[in-house]
Amino acid sequence: MKRPLRLKEDLQPASGRGYMHVCPWCGQPLLLYDTRDGDQAYWCEPCGKGHRAGELPLGALRPLPHAG
After folding, report:
1. CA pair distance 43, 46, nearest whole angstrom
2. Per the confidence metrics, is the pTM higher than 0.90?
């Protein structure tokens, strides 16, 4: 992973469909990174785990509070 695409302060990576990406293991918001192969991945710093943006595990999306 090269560099974060979002700042740490921007912890609301909303998907535009009323969901945000969270860690399926601890529930913390995830940071989006560019990978060396040109793909993107979400990474949880506290857990030290992550997943590719196109391969979401169960529990990786949480509805935003204002989503209906």
Report:
1. 9
2. no
9 and 31 Cβ atoms separated by less than 8 Å: no
* pLDDT tens for the 68 residues of the chain, in order: 556 655 554 444 444 577 888 999 999 999 899 999 999 999 999 999 999 988 888 888 888 887 55
Distance CA 60, CA 5 (A): 18
User: CB under 8 Å to 37, separation ≥6 — which residues?
Assistant: none
Angstrom distances, CA of residue 56 to CA of 20, 27, 66: 12, 14, 22
Q: How many CB atoms lie within 10 A of CB 42?
A: 22
